[in-house]
């Protein structure tokens, strides 16, 4: 689905430039820089074209060394990449701070920038709920005076809509206009609210005014008392009987991932609730205990986050004076800003309900479908199976084709945006190979003498069959032409051999000296044919897969 995602820009991988792991020590960084300087230093290549090529490669190597040898720059680069180094203001961070502190500070700033960008991009915010009554499917109402027909009836029993728009007035002041409409069984209501919020020292203050079931005036605010405790309180005046509804909320942060809430509300509905909530990267759990009028209840929920799969699994239980309710559901991310979820709710006296939710950026569409007023196994079964089958059908027929089309569209845009940079990377790779000639011959000669590691052939790019990959391919007319998706990297790989070993680390190999990306956005592989102790071998590696040759086997170990 097209989310108009930001295009990726080609950035330097300084670790790959020096062929180092991201855990490299200062000594390893200095050693790698010295080795590459012996190859690319301009003074070693006289005058003319070779010297210009050497200056290009030496400056690239020197830049990588300057960033990685400075703990402060390295901490920022590790967190934010080259864009972090180009961010204005990082140099004013106190240099006595540790790299971890700098990294945490810039991760926070980057997250705030992303939130502001998303906030500006996705306004206004809205919710639409359509309540559907489908109980006739599983428990038909037979009336001798009314013909129910052959097919079960499905009706929309209610609908609600809400929308809000935020307008930043200044860096510390925000105005919000929101409104909502509700319709249930033919009876409608609505309201609108205008609020102004101002950030103050250690807190915020907000004033509200609106109309709905009578005029409404209110004020609320929050203030941090300590690093772990803050209070939020508010008073609302509804100009109708029993109009004043004061409220006070206190929040205690128990640790980095756990928060406790103590809330008291007085007015038309008196209640006191305690909430303990824990949120980590892997899971989110919540426990709520509420004592009040007209209901008292205990609720607990647990959500498991499967980030790699873009999936959240949730179970919840709730019981009190109103009855009992259990929920089980899943939320699947289908694109950067879109997700779908399905939840099966089973309870007494509510019966069985299926909730379908579609999230598109900050717009939410909710469809509660009431399947039965009693707990019927057939209703539970279909509420569970139907969303799964529907999702897999839509995924195959709609989501996957749309995502693939969007991916290809973005790849073409990125290629166009980075065409100059990609052409420069190709020139750098060709320059590096032309400067490696003497080193290549020397290393290859030494490896021949010791019967060590000799790179016979090395191809890098897009291919599916490692056996038949070649630098040349036949077109539709049978003419042989250069394969545009594969490049020869035999010379740069041989130059990286040291003591009959070739070691490449977990990063894209397109950033290694003498490499470039021949097919941006596509999955790439590296095929190496080599000899070791006069025995021929062949290996294929994924682009970001670490490489260690020779591969140790019983034969090579002897």
UniProtKB/TrEMBL annotation:
<protein>
    <submittedName>
        <fullName>J domain-containing protein</fullName>
    </submittedName>
</protein>
<dbReference type="InterPro" id="IPR055225">
    <property type="entry name" value="DNAJC11-like_beta-barrel"/>
</dbReference>
<keyword id="KW-0143">Chaperone</keyword>
<dbReference type="InterPro" id="IPR036869">
    <property type="entry name" value="J_dom_sf"/>
</dbReference>
<dbReference type="InterPro" id="IPR024586">
    <property type="entry name" value="DnaJ-like_C11_C"/>
</dbReference>
<dbReference type="InterPro" id="IPR001623">
    <property type="entry name" value="DnaJ_domain"/>
</dbReference>
<dbReference type="Pfam" id="PF11875">
    <property type="entry name" value="DnaJ-like_C11_C"/>
</dbReference>
<dbReference type="Pfam" id="PF22774">
    <property type="entry name" value="DNAJC11_beta-barrel"/>
</dbReference>
<dbReference type="Pfam" id="PF00226">
    <property type="entry name" value="DnaJ"/>
</dbReference>
<dbReference type="InterPro" id="IPR052243">
    <property type="entry name" value="Mito_inner_membrane_organizer"/>
</dbReference>
<dbReference type="GO" id="GO:0005739">
    <property type="term" value="C:mitochondrion"/>
</dbReference>
<dbReference type="GO" id="GO:0042407">
    <property type="term" value="P:cristae formation"/>
</dbReference>
């Amino acid at each position: 689905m097209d989310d108009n995602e930001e295009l990726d820009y080609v950035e330097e991988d300084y670790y790959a430039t020096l062929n180092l792991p991201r855990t490299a020590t200062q000594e390893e960084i200095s050693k790698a820089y010295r080795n590459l300087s012996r190859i690319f230093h301009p003074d070693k290549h006289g005058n003319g074209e070779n010297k210009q090529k050497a200056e290009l490669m030496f400056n690239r190597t020197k830049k990588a060394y300057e960033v990685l040898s400075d703990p402060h720059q390295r901490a920022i680069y590790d967190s934010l990449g080259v864009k972090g180094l180009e961010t204005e203001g990082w140099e004013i961070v106190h240099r006595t701070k540790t790299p971890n502190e700098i990294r945490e500070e810039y991760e926070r700033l980057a997250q705030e920038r992303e939130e502001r960008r998303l906030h500006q991009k996705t306004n206004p915010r809205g919710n639409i709920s359509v309540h559907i009554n489908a109980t006739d499917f599983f428990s038909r109402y037979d009336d001798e005076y009314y013909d129910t027909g052959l097919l079960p009836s499905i009706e929309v029993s209610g609908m609600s809509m809400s929308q809000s728009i935020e307008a930043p007035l200044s860096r510390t002041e925000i105005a919000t206009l929101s409104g909502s409409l509700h319709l249930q069984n033919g009876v409608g209501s609505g309201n609108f609210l205008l609020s102004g919020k101002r950030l103050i020292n250690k807190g915020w203050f907000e004033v509200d005014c609106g109309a709905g079931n009578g005029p409404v005036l209110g004020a609320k605010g929050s203030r941090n008392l300590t690093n772990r405790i803050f209070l939020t309180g508010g008073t609302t005046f509804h100009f109708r009987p029993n109009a004043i509804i004061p409220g006070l909320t206190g929040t205690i942060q128990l640790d980095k991932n756990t928060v406790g809430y103590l809330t008291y509300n007085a007015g038309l509905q008196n209640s006191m609730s305690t909430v303990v909530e824990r949120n980590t990267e892997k899971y989110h759990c919540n426990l709520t205990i509420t004592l009040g009028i007209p209901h008292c209840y205990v609720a607990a929920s647990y959500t498991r986050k499967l980030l790699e799969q873009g999936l959240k699994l949730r179970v919840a239980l709730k019981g009190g004076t109103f009855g009992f309710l259990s929920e089980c559901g899943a939320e699947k991310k289908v694109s950067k800003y879109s997700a779908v979820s399905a939840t099966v709710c089973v309870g007494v006296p509510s019966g069985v309900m299926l909730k379908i939710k579609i999230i598109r950026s900050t717009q939410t569409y909710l469809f509660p479908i009431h399947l039965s007023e009693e707990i019927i196994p057939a209703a539970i079964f279909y509420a569970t199976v139907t969303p799964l089958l529907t999702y897999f059908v839509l995924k195959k027929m709609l989501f996957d084709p749309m995502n693939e089309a969007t991916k290809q569209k973005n790849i073409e845009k990125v290629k166009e945006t980075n065409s100059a940079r990609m052409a420069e990377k190709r020139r750098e790779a060709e320059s590096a190979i032309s400067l490696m000639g003497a080193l290549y011959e020397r290393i290859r000669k030494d490896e021949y003498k010791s019967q060590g590691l000799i790179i016979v052939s090395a191809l890098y790019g897009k291919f599916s069959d490692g056996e038949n990959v070649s630098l040349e391919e036949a077109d539709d007319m049978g003419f042989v032409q250069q394969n545009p998706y594969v490049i020869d990297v035999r010379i740069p790989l041989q130059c990286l051999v040291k003591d009959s070993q070739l070691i490449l680390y977990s990063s894209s190999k397109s950033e290694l000296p003498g490499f470039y990306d021949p097919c941006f956005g596509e999955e790439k592989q590296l095929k190496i044919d080599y000899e070791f102790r006069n025995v021929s071998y062949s290996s294929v590696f994924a682009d970001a897969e670490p490489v260690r040759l020779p591969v140790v086997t019983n034969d090579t170990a002897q």
